[in-house]
Amino acid sequence: MSGYRRISVPVDGGDLTVGLWGDGAPVVLAVHGITASHLSWAVVAERLGGAGTLAAVDLRGRGGSAELPGPYGMERHAADCLAVLDTLGLSSTVVTGHSMGGFVALVLADLYPDRVSRLVLVDGGPPLPAPGEGTPEEQLDAALGAAARRLTMRFADRAAYHDFWRAHPAFHTWSATIESYVDYDLTGMEPELRSRVSPDAMRQDYIDLNFGDAPAKAWQRLRRPAVFLRAERGMFDEPTALYRDPEPIADRIPLRTIPGANHYTIVLDDPGATEVAAAIIKPGVI
């Protein structure tokens, strides 16, 4: 999709960065995962093929919004997303969320149901399997692995950061789009480059999406129509999906499992990105 640009949206504590692809209606709001950025939606935006505008937010504590202060959590992110809807002049729109973004989207629709027409939840939003034993930090490390550990690491140059991500088991292929996504996450000066993601934001958000009242109540109430796209494979491309048992979700909303997609490639590569785009622009596609 052509016409990529970024805008700033005033929110509590500063400005939120939002990436936009395309022009005209409909305008869809997209929300990324716990250590990602708006550029995780770039391939989905391309697959929309000019069917409106995709507006993807950098959540507080990530990307261009990294310097925005806490507190964090799903309700805080939902309030920031509401500010984006206001700035874009959207009275109501489709909202899609990947991973943690699914939880943010659910809470947004629960707190402000008149502003959300439909939800497209992508491998995130419904309650996750119960975390394992240990402290929240230990659970977080087990759940996210290198994606979380990188927040305390330093990299000599961009090539070193590329090598770090190329070694991640979920990334089968390397593309210019993925490289741009990875580069956008870097800040600082060589040889002390680091991720822009706030460790505090990641920690607070992980605890809230797993144990907070707002995400749980949003799923229980489910105020807006929703569909769920499930990755067949897991966070590290393991054969066990992040959502191991899809039946409780399928009992509530339409669900489609994307064969071959893992938790990352369901938005960053095909067939996942094409399936997500279709679900966004074609109600009832699954």
Automatic annotation (TrEMBL):
Residues 26-248 form the AB hydrolase-1 domain. Coiled coil: none annotated. Keywords: Hydrolase. SUPFAM superfamilies: alpha/beta-Hydrolases. GO terms for molecular function: hydrolase activity. It holds the Pfam family Abhydrolase_1. Gene3D superfamilies: alpha/beta hydrolase. GO terms for cellular component: membrane. This is AB hydrolase-1 domain-containing protein.
